[in-house]
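subagent[fold] <- orchestrator: predict structure for attached chain, return tokens only, no commentary.
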Amino acid sequence: MAEIKSTATASASKKAAQPQQSGNLVATLAPILCILAGYVIWRFVLGNGSNFTNPDPNGGFWPSHKGPKGTFTKMYEGGIVVPVLIGSLLIVLTFVIERLMTIKKAAGNGNIAEFIRKVQFQLANKEVDKAIAECDKQKGSVGNVMKSGLTKYKEMITNTELDTDQKVLNIQKEIEEATALELPMLEKNLVFLSTIASVATLLGLFGTVLGMIRSFSKLGEEGGGEAARELSQGISEALYNTALGIGTSAIAIIMYNVFTTRIDGITYGIDESGFTLTQSFAANYK
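subagent[fold] -> orchestrator:
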């Protein structure tokens, strides 16, 4: 009997590890691919020779194109920090989409509060199977936790060896274990949004400072009215870094707060479902 339990536990652990490995692979590859995509956009889209009146024929890693034809193309002259900022924006967008899909799935079908009320009604009538059926319809994290608890709930009804308090503790332990599997999935990868929310603005300022240094260096070398014109143009180009950094940071902060609010709602539903099960069992099976 012990071997069967051990095998089942190992199998369950293996199944639980597979999504985690997949998630870790996405979290590892996505930032690298986004930064590379940022460079490709900066170098071959913004930095396409046809976008400039005086393109650099030699090309290379960072061509010295002059005379951008469009306002958007001027972002290219913001410097080498621009592709990093574009990559950061792509990272934010990637994990926003990933979190939207995950949290939408975790929220399940219908309203969580309404689902809990339906389960409470079924439990008050001692219809555990119907309550489990409601969990199957919900198909979310709250439903998964509730179903695990209800399975143990049903098992404890027929148990004659334990007293009521011990049965309630077993149900509570089952709910805690199910919750421990659900919560990491909800909070995973939010660290990318919180980190970029802080770092993107600093990267933008860093790119602006580098651009200002280049502009003032030219002013010191050349002097005269032409140098002043290039200075004002260089400052304008350098500020694209700041604008891109602030914009990326703003999106990351807004979406991080949206996701944490939705996760708090799901977490509250999980806590309420656990309280519902333990209180219902204590009241109906004293």
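orchestrator: received. Logging for downstream: DSSP finds eight helices and two strands in the chain. The helical segments are 2-46, 81-107, 112-124, 128-138, 141-157, 164-187, 190-222, 224-284.
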